[in-house]
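Researcher: We're teaching a course module on how sequence relates to structure. For the next exercise, students receive a sequence and then see the predicted structure as tokens, so they can try to spot secondary structure elements on their own. Here is the exercise chain.
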Amino acid sequence: MIQRMDTPLFPLHVVLFPGSAMPLHVFETRYRALMERVLSDDRRFGVLAIRRGREVGGYADTFRIGTMAVVEQVQRAPDGSMAIIVTGHERFAVDVRLPDDPYPVGEVTILDEQPGEHPSKELPGARAAVNRYLSVVARVHGDDVVAPALPDDVVSASFALASALTLDLPERQRLLEAPDAANRLKLVAELAKREALLLEAVGPSVGRPTDAVSPN
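Model: And here is the predicted structure for the students to work with:
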């Protein structure tokens, strides 16, 4: 495991999975300062889902496990705000949340990714459950939904399948925090089957976040 001291942290009402891309609108003064530091350094910062609190204007209580994000694209506006696109990389755990001065910072440890027990046996069932879920989504919403292309690495594949599910934030966080790929794939299959049945029975839920766009 690798420790990163004094790591900039960005609390959001979303869960970023390793391997996923996310657009982000940065306009608050403290997070513009955070992003200037990130862009002048290694373009990396930690994304943490908010447990309680708001993204804008105050302190937010976050989950301990998050994902390191790397800035891929930046578009600056005349008012100083930024439209950026990030990709998720390694998961991390916050060891110490330091005072926000002016933006959130923490001492974090990068987590080692483990395959778990017999992940290759869990992968087909999780893939089938997600594909069925996506077909139900397409039928209910009348949209074309494309199944995610799965990497050869089973850990990366577990995150790709997890990111394909539209779930409430706590359940997405459960998927992120799964101890290994095998357990994550089991949970993916369970949640995908449940969501497919719910969609077929009652239709889409209202107000459920998709994590597609996150304003700061």
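Model: If you want an answer key for the exercise: Residues 119-141 form the longest helix (23 residues). Residues 119-202 form a domain with the Methane Monooxygenase Hydroxylase; Chain G, domain 1 fold (CATH 1.20.58).
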